[in-house]
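Pipeline run #58 for the internal structure catalog. This entry was flagged by the ingest filter as a single-chain record with no existing model, so it goes straight to prediction. Upstream metadata was stripped on purpose; only the residue string is passed forward. Reviewer on rotation: M.T. Logging verbosity set to normal.
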Amino acid sequence: MGSSSRHGSSAPDAEAEAAARPRHVAVIMDGNNRWAKLRGLAGAQGHAEGERALRQVVEFAARQQIEVLTVFAFSSENWRRPPDEVAALMRLFLLALDVRVAELDKARIRLRFIGDRSAFSPELQQGMAAAEQRTAVHTRMTLVIAVNYGGQWDMAQAARRLAEAVSEGSLQPADITPERFGASVEMADLPAVDLLIRTGGEMRLSNFVLWQAAYAEYHFCDTLWPDFGDTQFQLALDDFAGRQRRFGRTSEQIEALHA
């Protein structure tokens, strides 16, 4: 590389670098149970290791200047799991609220939760609200944790809000556009998902951020979540940087825009 790589990038180089980096990364953290089973451990141990992996991933994302990291911690379908596993997850969640929120606060990372909180215990609901309030002023990065969340639930909630506005007379049916609908889903105030990562070898969305990831790039990897770290995350970012995001345009049009 020339001297600009050693003494600072030019404005066009900086713009190209920013375009190659996703603003919003969403992660389906899959494989905790399988990781535990492979080692003859209880499923709860796999979830505990997965929580430690999340801490490392959050630190890496912040260093990479990613604006928003959204992780799928507990889906609306996860209530179907064995009761002892669900109970272990709830205990781990409470412990993480006690320990990790202080770390996020120190690291200047804002914490938000999306999903239907009403199914959780009052203690957990209060803990989530307190964590959000404690970190609300931070702007280094936003960590969004999806709990009791489903993409179809999210869109149904948005449709309900719009239907209520129509019923009240403050909105006309003809005014319901994709933009208006998008303003009613979770994370409407945040950038759309640019990159969606799923670990564990599965290749499906599992009802996660269906609206927000409409134009996301997908990266699937075989690594089980507790083993996912800086190296695997960097591979996903490199994969993203190599994609051409056309948003309906042709390759020639995209190349002309960046000429």
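catalog note: Residues 18-243 form a domain with the Undecaprenyl pyrophosphate synthetase fold (CATH 3.40.1180.10).
catalog note: Confidence is low (pLDDT under 50) at residues 1-9.
status: ready for reviewer M.T.
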